[in-house]
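Usage

Read records sequentially. Each one opens with the input sequence:
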Amino acid sequence: MSQLPLTWSSALLGDLIELNPKNSCDDDVEVGFVPMPCLGTRYLEKLSYEPRQWRDVKRGYTHFANGDVLLAKITPCFENGKAGIAQGLPNGIGAGSTEYFVCRPRSTIIDARYLLALFKTEKFIKKGTVQMTGSVGHKRVPKSYVTDTSIPLAPFAEQQRIADKLDAVLRRVNACRERLNRTTQMVKDFRRSVLRFPGAPEHALGQLGQVSGGLTKNGKRGTLPIVRPYLRVANVYSNELRLDEVAEIGMTSAEWEKTRLAPGDLLIVEGNGSIDQIGRLALWGGEIEECSHQNHLIRWRAGPDILPKYILYYLMSATGRQKIVQIASSTTGLHTLSVSKVAGLKIPVPSMAEQARVVNRIETLLAFADRLESRLATARAAVDRLTPALLAKAFRGELVPQDPNDEPAPELLKRLAATRASAPIPKRRSKAAGTIEN
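and closes with the structure output:
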């Protein structure tokens, strides 16, 4: 705090807010109900609400009003930065999840947007995460973390300038992020569009090469004569082999000869009823010496006059994917592939020269898409760093210039202390006698 501007001060957050206030109104008044999914994670994201009558939400929920700042206290919502300002509520009031801290800023002391920005900082979230208590999946930030946290307090007029600056700059950051998202989708569409294939006579996949299954049992190491690495469904994705975890299995000599993989083999996921899993496929390039595969991976090995990559790209195309889903369909609702279904899959096959031209063209365009996605990833990472950097800068007093005409924060705190000292002491009920005491 020693490096803060001279007009700033440090203050306990609990002194600057009213925590978890209560509402009161007629039962038939329409209010805004805000469950946890309606609370956003981004600084500018407005919370949404469901209209309810007050009688339906006045008990068993937190209360709030327009201008209050809502902060999620439960994991993982707190860590994700779920917080927002209540605005536009019917009749100005609302209720919502019991997993909110409701912070009502004290007038002319702390601006609601300034407080919201504080809740979005990495520093506030990381410190709160460390102090969470409770069982796994139900950890919560304690109330004391909110009330006892010391925060950098700027002059009230500067708080408003900071909030205005954040509104303007982060709106542009969000617009940039949305453009990147649209561009990312355009690249995905481009990838699908390059997988186009010429019309040609169709042949069954089983006629173009050998289709076979894998190991049908789980042999234990040491109990069978041959032990080899083997691929499972978890290793094969769409045009991608994930080989960080490859298990080993025991097998007979006959099983090894039947299931050993060779470079150029196409591996197709049989599936377990899920349309997303069925038909994932990738080419084996000999990444592991002497490797086998399990029976839930169907292997296709190319015959003469056919390029494995041509078949790979065709089955990745929209047309190929549609054919895979069609042959996997079942009247029982359990979608799965089999050796016989894959062997009967019809593929249009042009000449070898045409296959090579198609593969070369596709790989050229896919490489271009890879470069675009790499640049997009770099740009997205830079954009994602902007928001925490701007928030950190705001609370160091570096986002907007100081104005010597602003009422300094220490004077705000003096005024707040004087107001609280002159306020009447609330009466409380004696537990023993049931009387009202001062």
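Summary fields computed downstream for this record:
- The chain has a mean pLDDT of 91.
- DSSP finds 13 helices and 23 strands in the chain.
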